Amino acid sequence: MMEDLFLPAINACIVVLGDIGRSPRMQYHACSLLEHNCNVEIIGYQETEPLEELRRQHSKCKIHCLTPVPDVNFTPKLKLIFKTIWQSLSLLRALFSINRPKFVLVQNPPGIPTLMICYFYCLIMRSKLIIDWHNYTYTILALSLKDGERNLLCRFARWLECYFGGKADAHFCVTKAMQMDLNNNWNISNVTVLYDRPTSRFQPIDLCKKHDLFMKLSKSYSEFRGEIRDDLDKFWVKESTAFTEKLHNDSVQYKADRKAILISSTSWTPDEDFGILLKALEAYENNALRHFRDFPNLLCIITGKGPQKDEFVEKIERMKWVKVSFIMPWLDFEDYCTLLAAADLGVCLHWSSSGLDLPMKVVDMFGCGLPVCAYNFKCLKELVKPHQNGFVFENHQQLSEHLNFWFEKFPNNTNTNATKQVFIKHLQEFQGLRWRENWNTHALGIFNKYL
Fold first, then answer.
1. Could you give the CA distance from residue 258 to residue 243 in angstroms, rounded to a whole number?
2. What pLDDT, on the 0 to 100 scale, is given for residue 161?
3. Beta partners for residue 351, in sequence order
4. Which residue ranges does the record assign to the Glycosyl transferase family domain (predicted)?
5. For residues 265 and 303, is the Cβ–Cβ distance under 8 A?
6. Tens digit of each residue's pLDDT (9 = 90 or more) over 272-317
7. Distant-in-sequence, close-in-space partners of 183: CB < 8 Å, separation ≥ 6
8. Share of the chain above pLDDT 70, in %
9. Which of 136, 287, 290, 385 is the most exposed place for a label (fewest CB within 10 A)?
């Protein structure tokens, strides 16, 4: 194991101009720095609970909550200006309230006003600026602008991102494709690829743990409850859910006629087209009704919070479903990890505004041993290998075909189970490298270099 290079303790600052609890990669950075004797101060919004490891280390880890931007009755352009000024002042206030850090690690996006503010702060405080590139700010901004990347505001955002991004002392990014793009188009060469990897929290689980989770969720969601009258006739059953039953000897077994579980996680943002999933599920429903006994009922679980959720819920409620049902829970971190491991197939609709980042939700699913259907884009092959650890699709017809293949005669289809064994083999290889070991190999030396 690499020798601990952070002795004595140093101060580090992590800036997330977003919800800390929904920024897992930056939280993992913080946990790794804490393991190496850093005092970590995190600046960001706290809309959801951060990881327990960060909450319990009060002496070494402090979270500074930014004041949310007030809702003002301005025109869209004035709102954007007001938001930028508010966030700039709020971030400056937080930065100058902390102990002087050796380095500031900034999540990008959002890069405005983060990169500019953090650059000037590091200049004044003689701290090192390190950027972790998850995507590009200007490409995300382009999604909401009529003219897209041709818009003057978008071009100005790109210039700011490029100018201040290029002034950082070190860089991480999430793909080799992004590393190449930063080098070729932004003239930023000192970029280290740090792939997202699952933490040890994301693990395959046994049937007993799945049953315990289903029992817990059955208290809040009727879709997980067993048919009480049917189960009462089975004197050997101690307790049951819609998917499993525990016998009096405490062994657990699947129900023969159980539903299949399809899961997806989302922030409900424009870079995920859930219309594709909805159309694919419509096609699955129609096919399953024509071949009623060959396809199981499907429970589609979509976790997460975000601006487009209500619109999706309205579309679901307008349709009449027979073979497909939906729940959209917000789960704590532990239950989310367990539910991924308990599902039968994952779906990822992330398509990337830049085409250069990778969906972390797929990394989490792979960590739990869950095969994935993922929307295909330019650099997805760096993570998802078709017919090795998952499927890729580019439209709802292709996704529907994958669903029909995976769930036909579920769970006893010989062809499907053979494919599943191939996936399991490759997923086990993927699980051999976790975040901690990957960070120690690729990131620890970079932090030490710039101290």
1. 5
2. 96
3. none
4. 255-414
5. yes
6. 788 899 999 999 999 999 999 999 999 999 988 777 788 888 888 8
7. 189, 191
8. 95
9. 290
Q: Please state the rounded mean pLDDT for residues 346-372.
A: 94
- Position 4 scores a pLDDT of 52
Do the strands 10-19 and 103-108 form a parallel or antiparallel pair, or are they unpaired? parallel
Count of helices and strands (H, E) across the chain: 17, 16
For the residues of 333-371, what is the DSSP string, one character each?
HHHHHHHHHH-SEEEE-B--SSS----HHHHHHHHTT--
Q: What is the pTM of this model?
A: 0.90
Contacts of 47 (CB under 8 A, 6+ apart): 19, 21, 22
Q: How many residues does the chain have?
A: 451
Protein fold of 10-197+436-449:
Rossmann fold (3.40.50)
Is it true that domain 207-432 has CATH number 3.40.50.2000? yes
- Tell the residue number behind the tokens 């004041």, with chain if given: 67
Domain boundaries, the chain: 10-197+436-449, 207-432
Gap between the Cα atoms of 409 and 289, Å rounded: 13
Q: What is the DSSP letter of 146?
A: T
